[in-house]
Automatic annotation (TrEMBL):
Pfam families given in the database record: Methyltransf_25
Methyltransferase domain sequence ranges: 50-144
Protein name per the record: Methyltransferase domain-containing protein
Phylogenetic lineage: Bacteria, Bacillati, Bacillota, Bacilli, Bacillales
Signal peptide: none
Length: 185
């Protein structure tokens, strides 16, 4: 069964099979998950998504904060991790491709209140980075928030070109240490 408080063996196995897709040797820390989720006003989040959920460390924190009637869409490209997320988070919708947030969620317009991301943007082509960031922007309602972690500040400029505001926080209690971007539409 999936350990959503780490899932380290599966994560490491998948990293060695596909390092560019997984993006890190170890799953996110609880400190990183809390940093990504504690800064939001959860009373106003009715529809949310997570891109690149991995083994579910951040997913667990998101679900813990969501209102019981909120819609939540979980995206994970790696098949075995996606299957385990589907089993563990069976009250929520698990999807494959983060490039199609609106289509996968069945939404025709920008309705998401919050989108979280653990996608390894640094491993993607510039075109794919831009395609995903623009899809996130289209999926968010006005005032919606995109919260993403990265291991560098490489995406800062791209996020600033697309979003109204971008704030960055550093999380040293993660391996490797991470930057959390909070971007508002």
């Amino acid at each position: 069964m999936l350990r959503v408080d780490g899932g380290t063996p599966l994560f490491i196995q998948k990293f060695f099979q596909s390092p560019k897709q997984v993006g890190s040797l170890f799953p996110s820390s609880l400190s990183l998950a809390k940093k990504m989720t504690t800064q939001l006003c959860w009373d106003h989040i009715d529809i949310a998504a997570e891109l690149g959920a991995g083994t579910g460390v951040i997913t667990k924190e998101i679900v813990r904060n969501l209102k019981p009637d909120s819609e939540f869409y979980i995206f994970e490209k790696e098949e075995e991790m996606r299957k385990k997320l589907t089993l563990h988070f069976n009250k929520h919708t698990v999807c494959e491709d983060a490039r199609h947030i609106l289509i996968s969620s069945g939404k025709e317009e920008a309705t998401m209140d919050a989108i979280f991301s653990g996608l390894p943007f640094a491993n993607f082509t510039r075109n794919l980075q831009r395609e995903i960031v623009e899809e996130v922007y289209r999926a968010l309602r006005p005032g919606g928030v995109f919260v993403a972690f990265q291991y560098s500040t490489q995406m800062k400029r791209t996020f600033q070109e697309v979003f109204r505001t971008v704030e960055i926080a550093f999380v040293p209690k993660n391996f490797p240490p991470a930057f959390v971007y909070t971007c508002e539409k």
